[in-house]
Amino acid sequence: MSARPLIDPDVLTQAARPMPVVVIFDWSYSMRFVQQDIAAALRALPGEFEGRTVLRNSGEIALITMSHEGVVLRTGEPDVPPFGFVRAPAFTPPDDVVCDGTTQLDRALQLAVDLLERRCRQCAEAGRATYRPYIAIISDGDPTDEDGASDDTRWRRPAQRVRETLDGKVLVEAFVPAGSPCGILAELVGGDDLVHELDPAKLAQVLEAVSFSAERGATTHPRSATDVVRDDIARGHDDATGGGQP
Fold it and tell me: Per residue in 204-214, pLDDT tens?
């Protein structure tokens, strides 16, 4: 008879501390110059998730896009647990990327906060700790309203809500393609140091920022024994196979 493993892998997966990550992706007309790169980058994301221990074990992704279709949640359902998030290993890239339309950042931010509040509340009610919630905004600068006006300031109210929600524990960063203006993004995220240049062919920059935040323990809860054991097992597996974070 084979020996039963010391820790049931299924139980371990269920006990892993979730790390909710919302990616707000600008697919507006002004991003058309990187449209093909965006499509290729999204197709590469599953491999990037697999190669990073924290994201592979704990990452939960919600992808929101802003385009001619309006603000669209492309992962899960917003009103059904886990509220728009999918586990990183189950992330499926969108079939098509069409950069057209406007950048309705106010609506995208509102949706992002709604998803984070619902998911974190669900985890808290189940007695589960979470890593620090994270919003990554990928855009080329200023938001626009439904008519394309570039002086839209409606983003300020949801941005304030982002700063106040979940006791101010949400981390927000922006990623801007090379050569694009920063626009209002520095003000939105809270400083120039939180705006980074993005190579659209290497979205790993976003993933590395998320992983770093998680590894630094920026959470509202102490690290549990299960988390330690899970990461040690994952680290041992990576050492044996040559995988894991560089």
Answer: 878 888 887 77
